[in-house]
Q: What sequence folds into this?
């Protein structure tokens, strides 16, 4: 699954995601997630999960990053890094985005080109395209 996304860029994105994860508001699941979105103009926009006492109102880290980006008038993205795990524990697993986040990303990217970096650390990660994670997807072109 690993491919040509520059390893320096991956490391920078993962570092930003790890920093964002520290801000996660996850008092219910205690599962803290950080995400870092790389824009085509080389900006990094981060997000964390934000939970709510009314559980369905929780927002994932990936969507927080995308919605922040749109608010900043950034709509072209190359990659996203995701780090996640229980609070006060080291990160044990590679976490891939949930179905809703995959669909939200799909709105703005070419699924064949966009990279999803699922990381345990800056040196231990997997890369997949959005097309691999969300095949045969429905997107803006379907409504054109
Ligand atoms: N979560 C994310 O932020 N991103 C994912 O990719 C998976 C799940 C959050 C939502 C919720 O706050 C917690 O993790 C447990 O599901």
A:
């Amino acid at each position: 699954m690993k491919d040509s996304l520059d390893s320096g860029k991956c490391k920078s994105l993962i570092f930003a995601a790890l920093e964002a994860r520290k801000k996660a508001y996850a008092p219910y699941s205690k599962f803290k997630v950080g995400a870092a979105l790389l824009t085509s103009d080389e900006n990094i926009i981060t997000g964390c999960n934000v939970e709510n006492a009314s559980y369905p109102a929780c927002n994932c880290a990936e969507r927080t990053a995308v919605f922040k980006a749109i608010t900043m008038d950034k709509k072209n993205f190359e990659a996203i890094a995701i780090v996640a795990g229980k609070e006060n524990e080291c990160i044990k697993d590679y976490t891939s985005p949930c179905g809703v986040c995959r669909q939200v990303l799909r709105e703005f990217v070419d699924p064949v080109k966009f990279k999803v970096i699922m990381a345990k650390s800056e040196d231990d990660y997997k890369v997949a395209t959005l097309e691999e994670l969300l095949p045969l997807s429905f997107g803006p072109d379907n409504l054109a």
Summary: Residues 2-136 form a domain with the Cytidine Deaminase; domain 2 fold (CATH 3.40.140.10). Residues 7-21 form the longest helix (15 residues). The CA atoms of residues 31 and 94 lie 13 Å apart. The chain has one domain: 2-136.
